[in-house]
Amino acid sequence: MQTPREVAESYWAAECRRDLDAVLSYYHEDAVVYPPAGEPLRGHPEIAPWYADEMRDYPGLEVRIAHEVSNGPEAALEWEAVLIDHDGGRHPFRGVNVVRVRNGKFETVRAYFDPASIG
Question: I need a surface site. Which of 26, 38, 40, 49 has the fewest CB within 10 A?
């Protein structure tokens, strides 16, 4: 059984490759993502466009887990990331994802970061 951190590390590797299909493979079909702003995203049809927009706007991404607090299938993962725009500009930001996994995939992801800090 994969730990939440192991799932997150694999997921972030896929996101850093900007591989949308691989990113979605880390979510159950009925997963719910709670973005830092806006309504919850339910299932692949709502989650995919959110990632597609980010990947379109920022073709590069680097992520590092800075701290973890785990309890069975749940974890809070503090991360440091850098989004890289089309001109090579680097946009660092930090946040926390609170995740719940089942069978190696996310059931829920609650993302906490300040979207205004990117840019």
Answer: 38
Q: Using a CB cutoff of 8 Å and minimum separation of 24, what contacts does 74-80 make? A: 74/4, 74/98, 74/99, 74/100, 74/101, 75/3, 75/4, 75/5, 75/8, 75/99, 77/4, 77/5, 77/8, 79/12
Q: 4-117 domain in CATH 3.10.450.50?
A: yes
Domain ranges of the chain: 4-117
Q: In this predicted model, what pLDDT tens digit does every residue of 20-71 receive, in sequence order?
A: 999 999 999 999 999 998 999 999 999 999 999 999 999 999 999 999 999 9
